[in-house]
Amino acid sequence: MFNFEEELKKLPNKPGVYIMRDDKDVILYVGKAINLHSRVRSYFRENIGRGPAIDKMVTLIARFEYIVTDSELEALVLENNLIKEHSPKYNTLLKDDKTYPYIKVTLGEEYPRILFSRTMKKDKSKYFGPYTSAAAVKDTIELLNKLYQLRTCNRSLPKDVCKERPCLNYHIKQCLGPCQGYISKEQYREQVEGALAFLNGNYNLILKDLEQKMKAAAEALEFEEAATYRDLYNSVKQVSQKQKITDSVGEDKDIIALYRDEAEAVVQVFFVRDGKLIGREHYYMTNVSDIEKPQILGDFVKQFYAGTPFIPRELMLQYEIEDADLIEKWLSDRRGSRTYLRVPKIGDKEKLVELAAQNAKLILSQDREKLKREEGRTIGAVKEIAEILGLSHINRMEAFDISNINGFENVGSMIVFEKGKPKPSDYRKFRIKTVSGPDDYACMREVLTRRFTHGMEESKALKEKQIDEEFGSFTRFPDLLMMDGGRGQVNIALSVLAELNINIPVCGMVKDDNHRTRGLYFENVELPIDTRSEGFKLITRIQDEAHRFAIEYHRSLRSKTQVKSVLDDIPGVGPARRKALMRRFKSLEEIRNATAKQLMELPEINERTALEIVDFFSKQSLPNQPTM
Questions:
Q1: What is the pLDDT of residues 366-382, one digit of tens each?
Q2: Is the residue at 444 inside a domain?
Q3: Looking at residue 260, which CATH number applies to its domain?
Q4: What is the pTM of this model?
Q5: Do residues 150 and 112 lie in contact, with contact meaning Cβ atoms separated by under 8 Å?
Q6: In whole angstroms, what is the distance from residue 498 CA to residue 504 CA?
Q7: Of 176, 218, 361, 392, which cross-links 259 as Cys (Cβ 3.0–4.6 Å)?
């Protein structure tokens, strides 16, 4: 039993990190302290205005532990690491799983390349970024390689010069061919310097050069070449126009502000590199209900810059934050040079911070509206269906469908929607075992019987701990069964459930003569539904999804069966050779058109078997050649 009075007395008067745990040993909160003795003891005094959330947390604490550090700075770093690892319930948390892209120029190589990277390492390469859009980074790299015709291969140059033929990029004039020695190291470096100038924002020289080349090609009547230069010119101009100057000094800085409501906060960051606004990004902070804005901002700064490899020279903040001097020192140590935390009060810098705050407010408002619309399409639609059927609650819905062609390869599908959204991880396929011929009712009876029998068996095994919970995928029964059809399919489902002594509501999705949903069949009555409502749209999505899933499964089985049956008729072709042929050739048509020599390229096919295959297909006519 944890003795609070005794343990509180043992707390040292030193800096460190403290960890609060509940009776299940789950971490509730992680904090840092200059003095562990006074900070931790403060939680267990009478109410001193800590806020409802912290008061609630204190009632849940079953024990605490602490880690002593040599300095408050070490405590700050350790606190960040523990929060990131454990995501405690009562800490303000940054909801962020992003890694930011960089443009990497491998200056450590004799023939440098321009690469996409999500990490910034201490090597001889030069990095540009971070950027907020991976697509924009890839487009820029593609543009630079077109402009300067730099290599993209992994060959070790100059060691591998002339060892292999030049790749396609050389032939389409997107590489100068250093792998063949077609360009000297000095000339190649000039191209690299041009790319570096471009990445540093010097677009005028390349624009002027492209314009001259475009005009020269046009005058020489090389219109295709002129069009290529024109497209490159337009691409460069588009990139240059996206760069907005925000600071004549040309420094790196991040502008950070937030907006909050009762439940969560959004932090907006503007990224300025070399005086240019290269992008912006927003981040959600949770567990903020009783937290003041400056503390939220401080928690964001600590958590965000603990995880990003790039630290700018300056952070322009909306509010003064706690431990600003300590955080400034920590960031400076990480950066390797001085980083400043500033809160501008007047002028253009203050206006930029205010602009970031306005963007944060707009994002939170837009996301709330988006969430509201999404809830209307999903949870709201489920509520509509429940009201139409007179049910008090629906969460999980399962729909089933049967697919076959004249009774060939009967299959069934089970799809699952939870809270109005599809849950593909719970989808299941059924290959019909007991029915031959086109009998959809009998097929549906088999599918439903297997589904619910399996579920009951899994539930029993779970109770007896014969299987782990993660394997009990059939144990969750639906709140509503939705059958693709009317009275007939509904009655089949009801009879199966009755036989198994299971009570689940069943409705049918009734279609009109044009195969469009017109209403729901429930308890022997067809219920009309407004075709403009979200509930109707959800029913249609469920019906379409069940149909799609069944047809795709049937199509895959049909294709495999057709391929297998033809190849199995060839003398000398067994399972191993059949697999080899299917891996090498995309269709039966390709196998039929292959020569004996081409077939013998496979290690599994000898000359005799190859001739058997050629002879077999020469005597066959194949009206359908499905793709494998």
A1: 777 776 777 778 888 89
A2: yes
A3: 3.30.420.10
A4: 0.50
A5: yes
A6: 10
A7: 361
